[in-house]
Amino acid sequence: MSNTPTTIPTGPFDLCVIGAGSAGFSAAITAANQGAKVALIGYGTIGGTCVNFGCVPSKALIRAVEVLHMASSAARFNGITANARITDWKALVAQKQALVDELRQAKYADLLPAYKTLTYIEGKAAFLPDGSLAVNGTPLAAEKIILATGARPAIPPIPGMADIAFLTSTTALELEELPGSLLVIGAGYIGVEIAQIFARAGVAVTLFSRRGLLPEAEPEISKALTGYFNKEGISTEIVTAYDRIETGSAGIVLHVDRDENTETFDAEEVLIATGRTPNIDGLNLDAAGIAINSKGGVLVDAHMQTTRPGVYAAGDVTGTDQFVYMAAYGARIAAENAMGNAEQRYDNSAMPAVVFSDPQIASVGHTQASATAAGFTVKTSVLTLDNVPRALAARDTRGVIKLIADAKSKKLLGAHILAPEGADTIQTAVMAIKAGMTYSELGATIFPYLTNVEGLKLAAQTFDMNVKNLSCCAG
Question: What CATH number has the domain bearing residue 118?
Fold first, then answer.
């Protein structure tokens, strides 16, 4: 980059931020806006996971193949037929990459000159044996430090992994030619999203998991999504263990254990989607006395401070809440506290989470299981989308809405949505939970008719009544 120093500045800096992704930029900009002298240390591609390898490229391709599905399902409207096909996958991938390049430049690289007290340094940061910081071996003096080095795809210890060529969430989205078949190991949000991309593009996809699709989701949602995937031709396989993986005549052969038997699956390619692991290698955290948590990430307190005074961490490197908006949020808190505002605390109690499958999955707050474990007397409401007028008009009633409440106070504790464009509905539930609303209050709130979000009102009313007995807009 043009503004990258040719030699490593030694400081002193008020703050050094290690990692130039979403969390790193959030922290650096927050501190720079307060007049702090900031060093932002980047290594590799500027911009981090979201813009380069995650959110932007995946959602661009998800939306593209959605057109294929919409055409193939047009016959649900009487008198309409449509078709669409991929004529040039390489061109589609190039278009996706152009968007990635544009956003990386506009939202990251081009921002740097606007902050006069911010110095961008390209290099590898690590703690020295005495606990001080260095970049490419050159000591760098900084009063405070924020670790924001992100995460990378986690590779499971399946026997044979070292001897095969496999795809990750990064490389799968870079393929310029579609494989004929694909095995996807891991059915969390990454595996689910990418499996559907390739299936809708015409690839024969088999999705493997040990606990079913999206095992952390509400069981009603996981079960329904599995059915929708199966109808689209995505094979979903629950296995006991992955025995081994090897190269075969067709490409890849996976041996799995299930019901005390070994089964074999083969495909041209295999995608490993078993989560992400924090990027802490090479930082020499032990030298600084920085502890690691049970998820392999940097341990932080509610103020985002590590076990070393003056050193903070935020984003995926902590191993928790691995969403880009939570990374930026946590980094802002870390920077505020590093600059002297120790009152800022991390709060994820009303954190929205979205899986961009189709239908989309969106959630906030407690699940039924976590609310019960937390000691609440739980009351739930489950509403299928065939009760939502907007879904009926769209001839697409795939989905379910589940609300969790405290039976004693009626206070909303959680909301879970499986619906087309469900991501655009969840924020209403976020605000309701943030405001401490009861389900009665939500059910009495005025919602516009023939909207997806009206499903939340109907789900809230379902706690105490049968909404099938209501006329349109009643209540």
Answer: 3.50.50.60
